[in-house]
Amino acid sequence: MALLEVAGLNKAFGGVLAVQDVSFAVESGLVYSVIGPNGAGKTTLFNLITGIYEPTSGDIRFDGRSIVGQPPHRLASLGIARTFQNLQICMNMSARENVMVGAHLALDRNLVKGMLRWPALRRRDAALREEAAALMRYVGLDGYVAAAAGAMPYGALKRLEIARALAANPRLLFLDEPAAGLNPKETAEIDELIRRIADQGITVVLVEHDMKMVMNISDRILVLDYGKKLAEGSAPEVRANPDVIAAYLGAQHA
């Protein structure tokens, strides 16, 4: 059984169908990329699956159960995490604190119970701080563990957002344009990081415009065009698909 199943998904904004009858399935442990021209519906699809939008019709199933209508915090508790096309970093917090926010589901939010267990809370806080530092090292931010988020360069902030998503201990991780705005060296490093994440058993669903990166790391690719599913397959299959070449990749990729 696939970890994620999307069936007949539609989303209308007024009279505009942003996503039209899209169906696909993602097996566990894969890097699954979603590509298409600007306005193809990629981010809308992400927002539907991660609970920001509710579908007009259709079904979304995670690990065999429908998750339609579930809010983002509930989906996070089930094991679904994401990053955003535009950075969602708390610039007035430290880098480590930003990562700790990702582990908020593990925190005890009962105030009275917490006040009666100060030593346990202090130990848990110390453990979270160390876990956050370890995640920062994992994504290549060794030199920023004590940094203020607002003082970090853009490329490092992209990694910080991935570290924060990983702090939620996801089974399914959505990355919305993780290489956007990065130079070739930074893009290659993100490429390697995504593959390492998938090799650890975390399923990655990716929206990305860098076709070299997509073709290099993707196990499967879904192509959207005007909100519709245009093609799906392996990187070689998608690269050779004449409809994809015409709509998006360009003849030079044939």
SSE topology sketch:
Blueprint: E1 4-13, E2 16-26, E3 31-35, H1 42-49, E4 57-62, E5 65-66, H2 72-78, E6 80-82, H3 95-101, H4 111-115, H5 118-138, H6 154-166, E7 172-176, H7 184-199, E8 203-207, H8 211-217, E9 220-225, E10 228-233, H9 235-240, H10 242-249
Parallel strand pairs: 3-8, 3-9, 6-7, 7-8
Antiparallel strand pairs: 1-2, 1-4, 4-5, 9-10
Helix pairs in contact: 3-5, 3-6, 5-6
Q: What is the oligomeric state here?
A: single chain
Uncertain residue ranges = none
Spatial separation of the terminal alpha carbons:
33 Å
Secondary-structure class = alpha/beta
Described by the principal axes of the CA atoms, the overall outline is globular
Q: State the total count of DSSP E strands.
A: 10
Helix share of residues?
A: 25-40%
Total number of helices: 10
Question: CATH topology of the domain at 4-79 and 170-253, which one?
Answer: Rossmann fold
What is the chain-wise order of helices and strands?
EEEHEEHEHHHHEHEHEEHH
CATH homologous superfamily heading of the domain at 4-79 and 170-253: P-loop containing nucleotide triphosphate hydrolases
Tell me the strand percentage band.
15-25%
Mean pLDDT: 89
Radius of gyration: 19 Å
Just give the CATH class of the domain at 4-79 and 170-253.
Alpha Beta
Strands of the widest sheet, in order across it, are: 6-7-8-3-9-10
**CATH architecture label of the domain at 4-79 and 170-253:** 3-Layer(aba) Sandwich
Major sheet: 6 strands, mixed
Summarize the structure.
39% of the residues lie in helices and 23% in strands.
